Amino acid sequence: MAGHCEPPAAMNQLPGADDPMLGSLMLLNRALHRPVPPAVLLEGLPLEGQRLTLPLLSAVAARAGLSTWLVERDLDEIPDTSMPAILLLGKNRPCVLLQRCEHGRFLVALSGWGGGEQEVSRDELLAQYSGYAVFAQPVQQAEVWL
């Protein structure tokens, strides 16, 4: 169907909806087919206000076997091969950019939606996007803390 974007996989209700950064990491893990329980990811970490912060994201992602890096990148310059990626929006809210769709639209997921995806226009996303993204890729033969 023209203009419609197919989700990469169905995503069920996820833990972390009350912690936007953790929820986004859980969505990213799910999209990369690497789900890890939140308790395993967060065990022993000094959480600020019981929430995952950007400075701790890399350490937590490593526990899921992911290597992450923060980049300053225009939305149009994010390559499809770097998706899914966590986009940092205004007011310290992250979302997961799942894929680029037809007609300048993007498929995104917010943890507050329980993992549900929504197709948004480029303009809608640009209005909230801070210009920073977290790219991730699975680490080969990573030791996952399970």
Walkthrough of the structure:
The protein has 146 residues and is α+β, with helices and mostly antiparallel strands. The protein has four helices and six strands. The longest helix has 12 residues, at 20-31. Mean pLDDT is 83; it is low at 7-15 and 142-146. It is globular, with a radius of gyration of 14 Å. The protein has helices at 20-31, 38-42, 54-63, 122-128; strands at residues 66-72, 85-89, 94-100, 105-109, 117-121, 129-138. It has a six-stranded antiparallel beta sheet with strand order 1-6-2-3-4-5.
Overview features:
146 residues; six-stranded antiparallel β-sheet
Shape: globular
The total beta strand count reads 6
Secondary-structure-based class equals alpha+beta
Helix amount: 10-25%
Q: Strand share of the residues?
A: 25-35%
Largest sheet: 6 strands, antiparallel
Mean pLDDT: 83
Q: What is the ordering of alpha helices and beta strands? A: HHHEEEEEHE
Sheet with the most strands: spatial strand order: 1-6-2-3-4-5
Task: Present the secondary structure layout.
Elements: H1 20-31, H2 38-42, H3 54-63, E1 66-72, E2 85-89, E3 94-100, E4 105-109, E5 117-121, H4 122-128, E6 129-138
Antiparallel strand pairs: 1-6, 2-3, 2-6, 3-4, 4-5
Sum this structure up briefly:
The chain is of the alpha+beta class. The chain is built from four helices and six strands.
